[in-house]
Amino acid sequence: MNWLMHIIILQVLLGQVLSNFTCTGIKNIDKCLCIDELYGENKQVKCELSTLEFNLMESIIKIECNSSDQTRWEQNFGQIDINKLHYEKCLLSDTGINQTISTLGINKVQSLKLVAMRINGSLENTYLSNLENVETLDITLTKLILTNESFEGTPRLTKLYLRENYIEDIPADVFKPLTILEILDLGDNKITKINSDLFYGIPLKFLSLDTNYLTSLDLNSQSLNYLDVANNRITSLTVGRLNQLLNISLNKNILVTMPDQTFKNTSLVSIRFSHGNFTTIPQRFLTNLDRLLNVYLTSLKIEKVPENMIWGSQNIINFSLASNHLNELPVMFFRDARKLTLLDLSKNQIKNINHELLKPLENLKTLDLSNNLIIQINNYSLRHLKNLKYLDLERNKITNIEREALNFPKLKTLKLAYNKISNLTSNYSFSLYYLDKVETIDLSNNFIDCIDPGWVTLTNLININLSSNNFTVLRIQDIRYINKIAKTNLNNNPLEVIDLSNLEIVASAQSSPYNFWNKRQINLSSDKFICDCRNYEYARFLHKQMPEMVYKYLEIEQNLICNDGLDTEFLSVNIESLTCDWNIFEDVDKTDCFECECTYRPHDKSALMNCSNRNLIVAPEVIISSRNVNYIELNLRNNSITKLPNYENLNIKKLNIGYNNLNTINMTQLPKYLTELHLEHNNLTMISETNLTNILHNLNNLTMNSNSWICDCNAKNTINFIHNYSSKIFDLANITCDQSSTLLHTLTEKEVCQEELNTDMITVTIFLAVLSAAFSLGLLWMLYSNNKTKIKIWLYSHNITWLISEESLDQDKKYDAFLSFSHLDIELVENHLVPGLEGGSSPFKLCHHYRDWVVGDCVPNQIARSVDESRRTIIVLSKNYLKSVWCPIEFRVAYSTDLNECHSRIIIILYNDISEKDLNQELKAYLSINTYIKWGDRWFWEKLRYALTYRPATKNKNRAKIIVPDKLNSVRLT
Fold it and tell me: What does the DSSP 8-state code read for residue 516?
């Protein structure tokens, strides 16, 4: 499609009823594409040679030329009035822009923007001729060569922007035709020189010459208000003929000094000069400037200022000498600056504030002295600043603040971060009393280790930052003193203890109803936290074990890491396991602990006396006690003790005397309220007491295996005891007669005491029975030896399992146990279960699917194979397990094996709390008739190892393998 068709489309677009135009019916005409509502009210027509975009609401047309050839302008648009016309990347014809837009039918353009245009030669008057209606002209990214006639065709210009046009020279009379020009921007060009009378007679108010190559400047303009000469190379400046100058920006120049009273003939309101080497400020530099309000002389390497620098300039309100090299200011420097409201002296080298220096500044509201070398704030340095609202003293070397130093009745923000403050205790040398209006205090990155009771007077405080200090202990008293605070930041402190022992009392004393917006909010983080009973009350708070009113009074966001070297999060620590050394526990009439390791557990208010593994021959007779201890746990495990003393009247509830050399036990001398007793692995032969009805009535957990229990007529009392307490004996199935595998609980008193039979008859009978049995067994053994594998599999396939012992079934199992768990519980498995079972003197061989499964094999196959090749299946039952896709399948395969073989092979470890509603029907049914082991149980490892104790005697011998049927392959017998 040619340009003529393009113009016809534009005529349809912009002629007659412009506001009702839509693209319907003309999309994709030849090589033009019309797009409706491109950006809100914008519409766009894209053609081969150019793109036209216009906004119906704002009356703007933008034409972007897409071709390097000259664009043809041949048709009109119906004579419409457009406020703003934007050309981009087009070639300007020497017939002039006015001729072009007239041809297009566009009238009365008021704002014209030319971006990245192409001009043949200099900007002659023909290019911009007959543009009498244009008031704003913006030419950018176009290489311009100006002439004295360039702007003769734009006499009504009030705003002229000529940025980034590579302009080097400014003809002396180029702007003379612009008799009403007010704003001129010549920034970001390559101008090296400006004629002093260039703007004479022009009512220019705003002039930007920033980012050029000017080295000096002397202008004659009676109307200029704003002058920006930033980022040049100016070494000398004369503004004496700029009588109406209000604002000047001198940033990034190389001025070293200026004449005295440089701006005396101006009406200067604001001066900005930063990033230079203005090291020598002249006398009376800014004196007697009645209209001066803002002075910003920053980053100029100023080392000294004259005392009379701003004298007589009585209306200054903002004054900054930040980022210089000042050591001090003359005492009378602010003599006439009584209206000053903001003073910024930050990033200097000031060490002291003379008490007379700031005396005139009674109206000062903001004072920034941060990043200096101030060591002390004395009583008189700032005492005259009665209207101060913001005080920044960050990043100094302040160690001491005297008592009256912070007497600012209107102060709202106080910043003291990054100093060397170690103590804020209210005393004769310091007080917070005067800060009753303060809302924000920043004391971060100091050396403070306690909160002062004086905080209670700060009734308006809503934010305090105490992060990165030296707090090791935080008490409820500290929080109380921070009255109704919205947020307290205590992050990155070496916190060890958070004592909330009186929190419930304090919270209940608060007035009701509780106001959510007054709730104290505290942020805590530390990697030094002590994870023992000293933080038990805080653990109760974290685990929501306190009354609801407490959480209306206090909210804590925390990230506390135990100082155990394992990066354990305190939140994950079991609250029941929190104990501490007996010496730390403070209580009335507490006895001392000798020989053993003694601790206190606040969860159940119990005392734990651990005397295990200490080579004791005699059991301790003196047991720890205290008035407020509920009971005692005594652990004497793994010693060489032969006899127990009389513990009958001691408050011991749990007694572990396993793995010792006890040869006798007097049940009547055991503690009356004993609930748990461990006697396994001793030399006990019998229980001698005949009447045990009235003792040990609280006992609910007893272990007795691996002793030398006799099974003759002297064992009557032992057998009666076992029968009476059978439901309490955890290892009942392992208590056997000495030198025999007979289980004591299967014997009766009559069986062990029956009369002897006739010896001869017994002898004959035995001989005949042995002879007959030998012949039968020999025959059966021959048959069995030749067909052993086939017989077992035939019996197994016909559900006849009672003839097959567990040892027989398991003799060729590859693993002792298959671990079935969710990948989300991998930490428990790899950090605890695997090393706990595969290590030690009697290690078990585990099937771990991360380690032992074949890569690429089908998962169901892997599960079936792992269960078949393992003597037991250990299931880590957790909420993660129940949500897993494969874990329930692993349970079903193991459960199916149980049912088929009539042998219990599943061991369930209950990990974390699970409610009954979380379980599926199979697990619920299984757990209703089978026991489980709970992670965290103090006897966990003994119970788990006991459940895995079956180990075939022929385990290490070479033997023929029984082929286990694969779930997807047929059975193959050899």
Answer: G
Burial label for 116, CB within 10 Å (0-12, 13-18, 19+), is middle
Strands (E), 221-344: 226-228, 236-238, 247-249, 270-274, 294-298, 318-320, 342-344
Pick the more confident residue, 786 or 927: 927
- 936-971 pLDDT, tens digit each: 777 788 788 878 874 433 333 332 222 222 222 222
Q: How far apart are CA 399 and CA 623, in angstroms?
A: 52
Q: Taking a C-beta distance cutoff of 8 angstroms, is the pair 822, 881 a contact? A: yes
The rounded distance, in Å, linking the Cα atoms of 474 and 490 is 10
Residue 62 banded pLDDT, cuts 50, 70, 90: confident
C-alpha 943/C-alpha 935 separation (Å) is: 11
- Neighbouring CB atoms inside 10 A of 805's CB total 11
Helix ranges (DSSP H) in 574-714: none
Q: Which residue has the tokens 């001090």?
A: 328
Cα separation, 645 vs 651, in Å, equals: 14
Q: Which residues of 60-70 are buried (b: 16+ CB within 10 A; e: fewer)?
A: bbbbbbeeeee
Q: Please report which confidence band the pLDDT of residue 26 belongs to, taking 50, 70 and 90 as the band edges.
A: very low
For residue range 720-737, list pLDDT tens digits in order. 888 888 888 988 888 999
Calpha distance 505→431 (Å, rounded)? 29
Give the Cα separation of 593 and 608 in Å (integer).
10
Q: For residues 839 and 446, give the distance between their C-alpha atoms in angstroms, rounded to a whole number.
A: 48
d(CA 334, CA 357): 7
Among candidate residues 461, 460, 463, the one with its CA nearest the CA of residue 488: 463
The torsion defined by the Cα of 921, 922, 924 and 927, in degrees rounded to 10, comes to: 170
Q: Which residues fall within 8 angstroms of residue 338, CB to CB, at 6 or more apart?
A: 314, 360, 361, 362, 363
For 175, counting Cβ atoms within 10 Å of its Cβ (0-12 exposed, 13-18 middle, 19+ buried), the class is buried
